[in-house]
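Hey, I was hoping to borrow your eyes for a little while. No rush at all, and the record is pasted right below:
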Amino acid sequence: MTPRVDVKPELLRWARERARLDPAVLVRRFPKYLDWERGTARPTLKQLETFARTSRAPVGYFFLPEAPIEEVPIPDFRTVGGSAIARPSPEMLDTVYLCQQRQDWYREFARVEGEGPRRFVGSASVASDIEATAAHMRRALGFDLEERHTLPTWSAALRRFGEQAEALGVLVMISGIVGNSTRRRLDPEEFRGFALADPLAPVVFVNGADTKAAQMFTLAHELAHLWLGESALSDVAVGPTPVHRVEAWCNRVAAELLVPGEVVRAAHDASANLFSETQRLARRFKVSTLVVLRRLRDTGRLGGEEFRVAYREEIGRLKPSSATGGGSFHPTLRVRVGRRFGHALVTSTLEGRTSFSESLRLLGIRKVSTFREFAETLGAGR
C-alpha cells in the first residue's frame, strides 16, 4: 500500500485560499481533494508535492504545526473599505521578491560604476505643497504636456513616460505576469504597482495587466513615493480618497503631475456633454477617464453628486486589459525588466563581472542563446 502523509486539513485549505484556487478545479486534478480538506483521507507524498506546485506553496509548509503568516516585505497601503488587505497572493509576493533581487544587483552595479545618489529620492514630504512637488517632478522628468498631447496612443505615452523616468535613474519594470511565466498572471484588482525606494537603485513596478491609461497613473503615483523616499505597495484608486495620508498625498501629486489643475481648467468646455468632454480630455492628457473626472471634481468643474454618479458609470464601463506585454519576446522582456536594468545586466555579464547563471535568473530565462538575442535588442551585444 502506498504510504500516506499526515497533513493538517487547515494547511491544505490555507494553500488553496492563498493561491485563489477553485475547489472544483482542484477536484478534477485530485479527485480526493475535498476528503483531504475534511480530514477523512490523506494524500500520498507525490500527490502532496504536486499539490504544492499547483498552489505555489513550498512543500515544507505542509509539515508545519500551523499555517504561516506571510507579510509583504514592504509597507502595504492597500485597503478595502478602510481595512487592510490580508493574505497576499503568491504571484504578488514573488513579483516583489524578484524586483528586490534586481534592485540589490543594480545597487552594487551602481556603486562599482560610481553612480551618484538620485537626489530626487526623499526630496519631498507629505507636508510638501502638491502643485510645487508636481512641478518639480515635471521639470526633473522633462515631462512635456504638449508632447504627450501629440503622441498617438496611450501606449506611446506610457512608453515615453517610462523612458523619462529611466533617464532620471529609475528602474521601471512593467509586467502583467510573474517573471516570464504566462501561466502566472497578476491581478490588477489585488495591486496595481509598488515602489522600492533607494538612493542608488530606485524601482517602480507597474502591473501591466491593467489598462494603459491606468498604468500612466500608477507610474506617476509610484514616482511620488520615490520623491517621498518611501517603499510601498500602493492603493492607487483615483475615486474615493485613500485612508492613508501618504497614499492621499501621492494620489494628489500624481493627478497634478499628469493633469495640472491650471491646464484642465483652461481646457475644459463646460458646455459640452460630460461623457464626450471626459473622453476628449482623457485623449489629450493620455490618462484614464476616471482621472479626468477626479480632476474636474478637484478643480470645481463637477459637483460632488455629479462626480459620484459619473464615476460609478465610468467604473462600470471600463474593463482592465488582459494583455501581458504582447509582441515578440525580446522587446516584451525589455519592458518587463526595464531597459536601464536590462542594459546594465547584459553589459556586466558580457564583460565577465556577472555570471551567466545569475543573469539568466534575474531575467527569468533559461538559455544563453536567448540572453544573446536579448542583448542584441538592447544594442549591448555588438
User: Anything to note?
Assistant: The first strand starts at residue 79 and ends at 80.
